[in-house]
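Researcher: We plan to redesign the surface later, but first we want a full-length starting point. Tokens attached.
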């Protein structure tokens, strides 16, 4: 189990979650933040401070947000950033890239 960032973060990116994460497992993309699931220690601090309720426990995701588990995981893979497990948020691990579904979100959301 890990925490997942969902669609309400898109184009908001408040960032308070990155300030409180004790293991720096939340990384900044172009339109939203992403949680590296293998680095997350499931402390739930980020969930408690998110002003837009964009962070949820993976095991408690509503059906409409389940795809964000995959989106968060794939952001770190070879097809997006290639970061794998970066080991903590630093300036070297910030990007304007996003998962393809997030990059095209307005088009996808309009069709659903």
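Model: Full-length starting sequence:
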């Amino acid at each position: 189990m890990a925490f997942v960032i969902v669609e309400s973060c898109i184009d908001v990116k408040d960032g308070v979650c990155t300030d409180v994460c004790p293991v720096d497992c939340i990384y900044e993309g172009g339109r939203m933040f992403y949680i590296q699931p293998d680095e997350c220690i499931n402390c739930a601090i980020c969930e408690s401070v998110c002003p837009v309720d964009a962070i949820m426990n993976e095991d408690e995701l509503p059906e409409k947000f389940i795809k964000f588990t995959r989106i968060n995981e794939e952001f770190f893979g070879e097809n997006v950033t290639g970061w794998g497990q970066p080991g903590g948020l630093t300036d070297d691990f910030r990007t304007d890239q996003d998962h393809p579904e997030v990059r095209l979100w307005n088009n996808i959301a309009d069709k659903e």
